[in-house]
Input
Amino acid sequence: MIALVTGASQGIGAACARALSYAGHRVALVARDEEALGRVAASLAGESLVVPADVLEPGAIDAVFARVEEAWGPVEILVVNAGASMSAPLVRTTDEDWQRMLDLNLTAPFRCLRRALPAMTDAGFGRVVVIASVAGKVGSARIAAYTASKHGVLGLVRTAASEVARTGVTVNAVCPGYVDTPMTDTSVANIAAGTGRSEDDARRILENLQPIGRLVTVDEVAAAVMLCVANGAVNGQGLNVDGGAVQS
Output
């Protein structure tokens, strides 16, 4: 099948691309860093397509899908992973901070779904998985914009899933806790800078927020994505992959 992964140059996106590739799917890799995408492509088991793009640019998502369709045909599996976080007290969150979180974590996924779903419903099959966050289910201090964007994307997933439920298409979210990724490395550095702690101590703070006492691995997140791809009865869900921190 034809899969497309956004934010595929590192971390969770690269792990999802590898999992899909080793399961036998052709994988289109999307991110801004073409060189990093090339390294991910070289690690895959099968055919891949590197599509450099900034999903925030006007028209970029339509162009990405058109490129994949031209090369291979309609996208059958979509993993929406591109995203970012930021941390600041709500009263010091600027309009620009707020808008960037909404644009990247909510509007870009909306545009991806809007572009992907017609071909999937026409074909009678499709799988969409959005990488959300447990921050989409609970509120936490200092991440108001990020939390709001992730709550919003869960609403988007649930509504889309309801609309396509009888068509052979499923739409789900995977909601990780703290994952061992470059984004978490940035969080660790911010904690260290703000508290005067060492980065090792800052990392242990995040590890201890999860009952398993460690960071989640990118492969554990990718395995949850693959469950959503394989199981057509899983629809409209936000699957937590957080070591039991948020129970549902």
